[in-house]
Amino acid sequence: MQIEVRLFGGLTEHARASRITVDLDAPADVADLRAAIAAQHPPLAPLLGGVKIAINLEVAADDSPVPADAQVALLPPVAGGADDLSDTADVAIRTGLVTPPIDVAGALAAVSGPDVGGTAIFLGTVRDHAPDLDGVVGLDYSAYPEMAEKVLADLATEIATDHPEVRGIALLHAVGELDVGDHTILIVCAAAHRAPAFAACQDALERVKDHTPIWKRERTADGNHRWVGLADPSATADTPPPGPGSRS
Question: In the CATH scheme, what is the homologous superfamily, with its name and number, of domain 84-225?
Fold first, then answer.
């Protein structure tokens, strides 16, 4: 069977394509798919050790089957549509990918209410440097849109469940080209009191950074760029990619 695989972040540059095709013998699992990608698309082979594979918008284990009609994507390490506005268990929730600028005031209004006495906000901003890199002039954020929207909505529901005192949650992430000073992410958690709002906001931020398929490219004043979290292939050239024997 022939499987089409979507690529994101820095993987598109290494493959020089946003989609590739892979031939697999059926039945096949994710480990078989990894091995086939490494064999049929050598530029991607050194990177596969740090790449997750999503099957039908869910990150899949190596022993998960790969159906012939599956929607498949390679997800490099994440950079740590329209907004969805809904109520879940009486919690106002707003999530989504947005084109800058982020509507901070609109998000605050959407998740607040007369029962809210404290609102914790995290607003990310593009800075002019990284810990090991000076001269940053901007960031480019790209995403796997369908999966990112789903993950953000799911994370908001998880936060509402794990932090029952929270009455409103906004998880918004910018995509596209951002310059220094532009806002990258907005996390808002509203509650009757400040302590649960602060706790939920920090928890939500870490979950969004760890789980949402969004990738960051840093642009520098000299015209160069790098993808955050994607290893240099030359540093892993001697590391064999995972194969059928590496199932977890």
Answer: Molybdopterin biosynthesis MoaE subunit (3.90.1170.40)
